[in-house]
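Per-residue structure
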Amino acid sequence: MKVLINISVISKNHRGMGVFAKQIIRELIKNNHHQYIFISGNDIDKQMDDLIKSTHHIYRQINAPLPIFEQLVAPYLINKFKPDICWFPSNTFPLIMSSKIKYIATICDLIFLKNEIKPQSLYQKIGKYYRTINILLGTKKLDKVTSISYTVIHEIYDKFQLNEKIDETQVLYVAQQFSFNEDGSIFKKLNIKSSDKYFYSIAGIAPHKNLDFLIEAFNFFQEKNKNIKLIISGATHSKYNGLDENIVFTPFISEEEKKSLIKNAEIFIFPSLIEGFGIPLIEGLYHNPHVLVSDIAIFREIGKEYVSYFDPYDKEFLVKYFETPRKDINHEEAREYILTTFNAIKSTRKLENIFNEFK
């Protein structure tokens, strides 16, 4: 079969959905069961670009803003290559669909439908409105809906009143490749001494990432615990940058630098209010036995009994965490759970089974 896949999400500095798509596509290419046509509306990650170009599969890049690419360029390319199946791995997809082609989309979350999530920039507003319109108008047109967690797939079915039965092949867990190497030079870059104790978090500036709350909770904790720092990645443009010497924001860092920061932290914190999955949770758990995450459904699904949970509205959560005896976690068991559950081979096999449904 011919399968067309939009890989725009695997951009040069991809995160989240880009990591998910990259892991799956590597396995699809390795298995080589179908002819793939990869399309993109922007420059993609160099590793992925080199990998695709080393194969017999087709790659077409036509640079355009996402809405224009998906609604105008992608239908043009679909009509040109006439695939049997199209897979869109990052929430949105063309609204004009051919009845001769099967359309599959992976809807990673419904965060953009939440009224309480207010976009802060024009770019975020455009993204929210585009995703909202796309999902509301197009979800029932799809031949198969997939997602990256059971939590989200059930949310999608409830929201759109989809009648068909959910099966486990529709849940494509995100996989992650863990670096075996560390790069401790990040501590010198951040002016962190070997004697310094710190908490580490990966957050963002979007409201649902709950960064303001984390800063407030850390400041409350600091009132009685001065000799601790908070290091944050993923929010380089935060309004807090430079306001407190004990709060350190990293620039864009390598996987090896990230491993060093996670592994040597007193605790790893992930404070989000809403997530479709949460790659930092599995990264944190793999490298550090002391992981503290907000108590939301998706984190319960992923973290199970291997992490500690806190109320993401209680600014005293850090104080309470250190006043309460820590539960013992078998870290080797937790690492094995991460490797066997969040596995690119398993997720790819599920996706290929969906492809085969349409033969």
Remarks:
- The domain at 185-341 is CATH 3.40.50.2000 (Rossmann fold).
- The two ends are 8 Å apart (CA to CA).
- The chain has two domains: 2-175+343-357, 185-341.
